[in-house]
Amino acid sequence: MLCLLTTLISNAQEEVYICKTDNSVIAIPISAIEDMQFSSDNLNLLINKTDYTQESFLIVEIDSVTFIKPGQELNAVYVQYDGNSVTITNPYRGKGVDIVNEGCGVIVTSTVTDEEIKYILSGTTTDGMFKINSNYKFNLVLNGVDIINNDGPAVNIQSGKKVTVTLSDETINSLADGDTYTAYESEDMKSTIFSEGQLIFEGTGNLEVLGKNRHAIC
Q1: 35 to each of 14, 51, 67, 114, how far by Cα in Å?
Q2: Cα–chain-centroid distance for residue 18?
Q3: How much is the pLDDT for 28?
Q4: For the stretch 20-45, what's the b/e string if a residue is b when 16 or more beta carbons lie within 10 angstroms of its beta carbon?
């Protein structure tokens, strides 16, 4: 964890959010942090600041530590595609949203039942996809994303819940599937954007969908 904190600080992200078990949130600008470390007894997280002050947080009172980039929302999951890799920011890790990925193939499993989580997709990949199974309705934001999946849907929603698809303003989003699909016996999927539940589109962004196998949207 200490190595992770050091790496994230070196990436010059904007703020670190200390989310506590009492639901309070402390935001500290990265530029104000000299370093972060654990106390000698491993009971506290110590944040040494550039003004030579120190903040201390009991580990047992910390729910999560989240690093937020400029312009990002605290309560949103970010999926940023970049060629053959993907960067995922998941503030709900350990709270019911599990995300795994192999290359640019992202699979989300959400057991959250009391919050409409926002998933924000951006970036480009020529061999990836976004698949999700959620126990509750959610918001899928296409924020300038270009996904080609060569052996299945680009967006595969294996959930019967309502999905609001938001096209971010002034963005161009492009989705394409493959000519043939990898078979999944337990799944129905027959389009570039496939959903088991209701899809509601909103927003003023542009969406281009290419269906090579069967349908564009189903």
Answers
A1: 14, 12, 14, 36
A2: 19
A3: 84
A4: eeeeeeeeeebeebeebeeeeeeebb
Q: Quickly count: other Cβ atoms within 10 Å of residue 100's Cβ.
A: 10
Q: How many CA atoms are closer than 13 Å to the CA of 50, on its beta-carbon side?
A: 6
Q: pLDDT value at position 157?
A: 96
Helix (H, G, I), strand (E, B), or coil: what is residue 19?
strand
Using only C-alpha atoms, the chain has a radius of gyration, in whole angstroms, of: 19
Question: Residue 131's beta-bridge partner residues?
Answer: 107, 156
Of 117, 122, 108, 119, nearest to 80 by C-alpha is 122
Spatial separation of the C-alpha atoms in residues 47 and 214, rounded to whole Å: 54
State the pTM of this model: 0.75
How do residues 30-42 score in pLDDT, each as one tens digit?
Answer: 888 888 899 999 9
Tally helices (H) and strands (E) across the chain.
1, 20
Q: Which amino acid is at 211?
A: G
Rounded mean pLDDT, 186-200: 91
Task: Write the pLDDT tens digit of every residue in 49-102.
Answer: 999 999 999 999 987 777 766 666 778 899 999 989 998 888 888 889 999 998
